[in-house]
Structure formats: structure tokens, C-alpha cells
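Fold it.
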Amino acid sequence: MTDPWPWLTLAGLGAFHGLNPAMGWLFAVALGLHRQDRRLVWLSLLPIALGHALSVAAVAMVFVSAGVMVPPRAVRIAAGLALIGWALYHWRYGSRHRVRIGMRTGMAGLALWSFLMATGHGAGLMLWPVLMPLCFPDGAPAPGAAGPIVTALVGVGVHTLSMLVVTGLIAVTVYAWLGLSILRSAWINLDLVWTVALAAAGGWLLLG
């Protein structure tokens, strides 16, 4: 718990998610532009963060529960295989299975969209290589029956807060100054980076 690097890594992954237009800021900007209301850009951030946090927390709780009931080593192998499998799926079919919600959706629809996007990208799976040593130090659950659960939820909170900050900064900057044309001239393929990262994290879990 005192080692800062896992927490910084969780924050860094949150920042990466916030940077990815597919994770929320593009929708916030588009909704604000569609309704010509800057306030909607800010308001959209809350359901985006909520949907993302619920998706990540759900996956984290599945792995924490499994780690309490079965040897963490088995969970590590299962998570590694899941990450590699999800990377292959995302590489092969990810672009075909986009979530589609209209620009006139309300805040509840936006939260659902964020939940589905985070789930489809395997955001929760990607946190497990970082959460595992925090929740199960030395291959055993943290002290106390609720130790791993509390640790995982704190980690999800750190991750979501970082994602929210970066998403907000980019959304407001693009809405107010840069415009959506930046996606055509100065943006990289973050989905490809994410796919490689998923596979690399899965390999690390299997070989670690």
C-alpha cells in the first residue's frame, strides 16, 4: 500500500483512457456542439466517469472475489489469458462493434454508453495486473476479510479520478479552441496502442 508506483500506474491508465476519444471526451464535445451549450460539456463528464467506474469496478470485483476463493496464481493466469484473448478480439472485431447512441441522449444514456465502451475496450481487465499485487501482496489476500475489496475500490477511484480530469481538460480544450478537426490532423491510433498494451499486460501476467 505504501509503494507509490502501482497507484501512479493506475492514475496513468486513467489518463490514457481520458486521452482516448472513444472513452468519452469526443461524445462530451459533440453533445455540447450539437446543443450549443458549454455547460453540457461539463455535465457530460459525470455520467461518463460513472459509467467507466462501474465497468472497471465490476471487473475488479470479479477478480478480487476469485482471488479470495482460489489461489491468486490461478487468477493471474486466467487474467493473463483473458487480456491476450481480449486484445485479439479487439484487434480483429473491435472496430465492427461500436456502441451507437444518438447525440440527443440524456445523462442516463451517456452513462450506459460509457459503461459499454469501457467494457468493450477491456478497461477493467487492464487494471488487474496493477491491482493484483496491491490486493494480494506476497500471493495472499491483504489483512482483513474486506482488505482486497477496499484496496480494489480505492484503486478504481484513483483511476477514475485521473480519467475524469484528463477527459475534462481535453473536452473543454477541444470545444473552446481546437475543434474536432484535430482528430484528422494530429491524433494517433490509440485503439492500436491499447490493443498492444492489452496483449503486453497479459503476457506479463503469464510470465511473471
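The mean pLDDT is 82.
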